[in-house]
Write a structure and sequence with these properties.
The protein is built from two helices and four strands, in the order H-E-E-H-E-E. It is an alpha+beta fold. It has a single domain, classed as Alpha-Beta Plaits. The strands form two sheets. A two-stranded antiparallel ribbon has the order 1-2. Strands 3-4 form a two-stranded antiparallel sheet. A hairpin with a 5-residue loop joins strand 1 and strand 2. The longest helix is centred in the first third of the chain and has 15 residues. The termini are far apart.
Length: 98
């Protein structure tokens, strides 16, 4: 069985990103041991990306009956979507106070 739900979530997110005319950069892809993907990491840049995408963070659950399931049992899989803002450059000043 190949876990395709992560690819489906990634594809839907990518469609939304393209429709907003934001830019994406694929940072890292980790393949799963049973095929499919274990982790996909990307950077998204554009106007109000974090303000819009922050609500997509969370666990996405998929329930399905695989083709190989002979008794009709429902299998549940989950994928985490994490949306983080990119840190802005920061200048710190340390001063000794008396």
């Amino acid at each position: 069985m190949r876990p395709v739900y992560l690819l489906a979530i990634f594809t839907e997110c990518t469609r939304a990103i393209v429709s907003k005319k934001w830019r994406t950069e694929l940072v890292d892809v980790t393949h799963g041991t049973a095929g499919g993907y274990k982790e996909i990491v990307m950077n998204v840049t554009g106007e109000d990306v974090y303000g819009t995408m922050k609500y997509e963070s969370g666990v996405h659950r998929v329930q399905r009956v695989p083709q190989t399931e002979t008794q009709g049992r429902v299998h549940t899989s989950a994928a985490s979507v994490v949306v983080l803002p990119e840190a802005e450059s920061l200048m710190l000043r340390f001063m000794k106070r008396y």
